[in-house]
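Second opinion, please. Pick holes in both lines of this record:
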Amino acid sequence: MAETRYDAIGHDYTSTRQADPRIAGQIWAAIGDADRIVNVGAGAGSYERADRTMVAVEPSAVMINQRPVGAAPAVRAGAEALPFPDDAFDVALASMTVHHWTDLVQGLREMRRVSRRQVVFSFDPSVHDSSWVFNEYVPAALGQAYAAPLEVVVEALGATRVEVIPVPADCTDGFVIAFWRRPHMYLDPSVRASNSAFALLDDADVLPGMARLAADLTDGSWAARHADLLSKESVDGGLRLIIAG
């Protein structure tokens, strides 16, 4: 369950998972001038705005307790049973959360029920799983992203468009793909603890790979293998913005 998962891994979200302004700009361009917004799986409040009428929905008390003073009011509930009447909101937003839901399709149906439009920040699992960090160092993480297949999200929402969200080299939101050009960040236990791709695995599936990565950074072999990445300012890491309504 998302509640149990984030009670375990969500303690440092306010320090490691800061909203990236470029990603926020793309999300809010999709939302447009809508005012009444429900943020489903809202966590600590990333990608919310104070100038809109927002309500947050979050099942984890650990995440709710990290929401800053002045953040949108939070209702403790799961996506699968939103405690609102039909068409209560202009837009339902979900950011980096749908892959954790107990019942993906039911949660997406609930988003459609309570809002006229839906905006989901998620990822294409096939692109996400092509990352070097998984394939070279933590192969046990491969497949986790398929808990929310892109085509299932698109179909369940009746989405009208899907946008690529580029991942900047200096991305301030510390999701797992954010560090594609900053490999040393994966060696930080607090970074790994705030990413389910690592945090849900046993240490035996992660730490040997981190030891190899540390060695490859020291001897220059990582840089030699990935010289093409060092000249890029952004990449397609699989992040997608799915827009319906």
